[in-house]
Amino acid sequence: MKSAGIASRGLVLTGVMVCQRPITGLRRLQGERGGCVEEVQRREPVTEPAGLCRAASVRAFEAVSTARGPGDTITLNDGNQMPILSLGTVGIVSIADAVLTPAVTYAIESGYRQLDTAAIYRNEVQVGNGIAEAINRGVVSREDLWITTKLHPNVTSREGVVPAIRESLERLQVDYIDLYLIHVPFNLFDAPDHDIVNIWKGMEDAKALNLTRSIGVSNFDINQINRILNETDTVPAVNEIEVNPTFSNVDIVSYCQKRSITILAYAPFGFMVQRPFVLYDPPLSTFEEPILRQLARKYGKIPSQIFLRSLVDRGIVPIPRSTNFRHIVSNMNIFDFQLTSEEVDAIIQLNVDDKVYSFDPEPLEAMMSYYGYPNYHGFWSKPNSLKLTINHSSSGLRSRLDDGQSLALMKSRTLVSNQE
Predict the structure, then answer these.
(1) What is the pLDDT of residue 286?
(2) Contact assessment for residue 369 and residue 400, using Cβ atoms and an 8 Å cutoff
(3) Which of 2, 164, 319, 417 is the most buried (most CB within 10 A)?
């Protein structure tokens, strides 16, 4: 099995083969373009503090320390090289045309080389339009980009996988996907034929047809990954899971990394940003965490950059999501410093095992309604389940429960978070 590692300069560091893929068409854009439909109320200053970053005194995670930009790559277990930073694109469907397409183009212009989407996000067309615009402008070629998308959860058999990826290719306006993931291991549609091993064989079919370069999974736990390892011929290249300050997910991260399965981390800012769809009192987690502030002062950065860098220093590829141009650039500026192993460990200790996204019926329905995804028959409908209707407006988020239940937390939150 091939070792995974961070690519830079073709050196071998701590037993990891590394090499650098050149970034072409890179254009660093300064300042903020005006007029974003979504405006973020972020609990930290956007402007980076002045001062030079200081080198870490201990060179822990030596292979990761060589990552110098978002186009640097991590070598997957199938030999393909994936950029070390990705732009997340999950968001509210109704404003994707106005917000997401220009954000994707801007991110590529600014240096991002990986984009993360999914069939169920209902935004592959808008992501594809943003990619096409960047290519048409001559900023990049298709080969410079790494496009990750995911199988729709309504595909529950081997036979449905190849037709599904062909539909994604058409929406994204590309000839191949770089990384195709099973989005969830759960049988959300209660399909009688659902089996993750059978679905995985369909993923292998898609790769054999050169429709995707790499295949992987998302939201899989150890037992589910073991089924794939024990019953099929292909080790997943990636497991995309939630990792953030309140949910460090150490066990599954360690398990996957020991088997050369790379971790992609969604929702990296956890509850440090607004989560209007969460139905319970979330843990207190802000960008004012003392360890994040202390390290921000030390390295001349802001707390969000400190946490993203801690993921990179754990060998994890973060997927920060934003359509705010300043945040897009800020989230990318994490490659001119490195944390020590002790500093990474201190950040991991913020964990309280509390995650943002849940696949239980009620929180799932709230999240899907918030983003504007349709209520597919059987997708989360359960007896006595929460019936949530949401009206998005520029002034905020209004919600009600038709069964009379209280949503005290949601009613006080406004639609302000475009940062994951």
Answers:
(1) 85
(2) no
(3) 319
pTM over 0.90? The answer is no
For the chain, how many residues are written?
420
121 is catalytic: yes
Q: Domain limits of the chain?
A: 5-348, 361-411
> Active-site residue among 121, 266, 299, 373?
121
User: What does R_g of the chain's alpha carbons equal in angstroms?
Assistant: 20
pLDDT reading at 24 higher than 90: no
Per-residue CA distances from 306 to 79, 289, 298, 334 (Å): 29, 11, 10, 8
What is d(CA 255, CA 353) in angstroms, rounded to the nearest whole number? 17
Which CATH superfamily groups domain 5-348? NADP-dependent oxidoreductase domain (3.20.20.100)
117 touches 145 (CB < 8 A): no
Of 218 and 399, the structure prediction assigns the larger pLDDT to 218
pLDDT at 366 over 90: no
Q: List residues bridging with 14 in a β-sheet.
A: none
Half-sphere exposure of 231 toward its Cβ, with a 13 Å CA cutoff? 13
pLDDT per position as a tens digit, 167-187: 999 999 999 999 999 999 999
**C-beta of residue 99 within 8 angstroms of C-beta of residue 93:** no
- pLDDT digits over 224-234, tens only? 999 999 999 99
